[in-house]
Amino acid sequence: MTQSILASQPQASAQSSDSTRDATAFVPVRSPVEFNDSPVARALEQPLLLGLFLPIQAGGWSASTLPRTTDWNFDYNLALVQKAESLGFDLVFALSQWLPKGGYGGVFNGQALDSFMSLAAMTARTERIILVATSHVLYGPWHPLHFAKFSATLDHISKGRWGINVVTGHRAVEHEMFGWQRIEHDRRYELAGEFLDAVQQLWSQPENFSFVPELSSWKLDKAFVTPKPQYGRPLLVNATGSDAGIDFAARYSDVVFITSPAGSEIEAALAALPAHTARVKATAAKYGRKVRTLINPMVICRETEAEALAYRDAIVAHGDEGSFHRFDSDAHAWRGNAEQRNQAAARAVGGNISIVGAPQQIAEYIVRLHHAGIDGVQLSFFDFQPDLEFFGARVLPLLREAGLRL
């Protein structure tokens, strides 16, 4: 595997010439975190990063048919981003989804905007918030030269507010749509490492750059990208929990999007997260790097705890069984044992973890997540538009009082 330039100097088979920089002479790449005036560095001045996980896919994040405004279309999501920006949120995420006709079934019917394209459009309609698009870097459309050029262009349009959540894909159906067999898990990270090594050199090299990877089929021959990103490179994020994924994130990413090792129940998650976040950060420290951790809570909040619990119960009561069996090959989750029913209820609610309660309780959960080693929250809601409004009015002031937001 070609090692990250952040960890060691990789060896490559390209030859140098008067117009081509030898691929072994890698130029160091600076993170936007290192530039005090970058949007990323300014966001990291906050004690806790605050983000929104956009519902650019049908069904949002909740497998429930309870009526709601949540919609995958561009105008709805742009309005969410602009509202989040007005509330002082630091960043927004969107997923990348490649599914055959019908998607997962039920409310997850496969309708979805492309993450890269939709957030790219939003760079011209926002002013301060950081936009992080998810990109499967191994799938057919991407060549490192395309990726580097498009991302550098968006970095300029956004004035340094562009980021990429780098993913390698894991569902067999996604690989098959591009005409491949599913790639073995750890090898995907090796291929992604070669890809990002090349991309980062295209962002940093002052001369033409040639590179022949050891594992991948693409090549670079006297390649050059202009403009260069304004702050070293765009923000890099990785969503992972595996050994290979954590090692990859430790070498390349600024932010690591983690999940709870103990599932969605908040108390179990809070017990498991300190060791998990410490492991992620310790792995980065081995490479002389610092990473921040980000997690995705589903927020169900009302004026009183009783109202919030009733809202949660209504979401679960309308659980969409048609969306479940495509995930777990179990069409009878609602009629199964207690564990299966709990899993089905968690999918109806959505989010990697769920926090339910009155505003003060939600704020306290977020404070506890921060104490467990979480550096940022990427929030989801069931009914995004009104729930985001309520969060901004009733919970955000409490986070400021708690010292988590400036």
UniProtKB/TrEMBL annotation:
Q: Which InterPro entries match?
A: Luciferase-like_dom, Luciferase-like_sf, SsuD_RutA_monooxygenase
Q: Where is the Luciferase-like domain?
A: 51-375
Family annotation (CDD domains): Alkanesulfonate_monoxygenase (cd01094)
- Recite the UniProt keywords alphabetically: Flavoprotein, FMN, Monooxygenase, Oxidoreductase
Please give the coiled-coil regions recorded for this protein: none
What Gene3D superfamilies does the record tag this protein with?
Luciferase-like domain
Q: Where is this region: Disordered?
A: 1-21
Q: Which domain of life is it from?
A: Bacteria
Pfam families per the UniProt record, alphabetical: Bac_luciferase
GO terms, molecular function: monooxygenase activity; oxidoreductase activity, acting on paired donors, with incorporation or reduction of molecular oxygen
Organism name = Paraburkholderia atlantica
* Lineage of the organism: Bacteria, Pseudomonadati, Pseudomonadota, Betaproteobacteria, Burkholderiales
Report the protein name in the record: FMNH2-dependent dimethyl sulfone monooxygenase
* Low complexity composition bias: residue spans: 1-18
UniProt xrefs under SUPFAM superfamilies: Bacterial luciferase-like
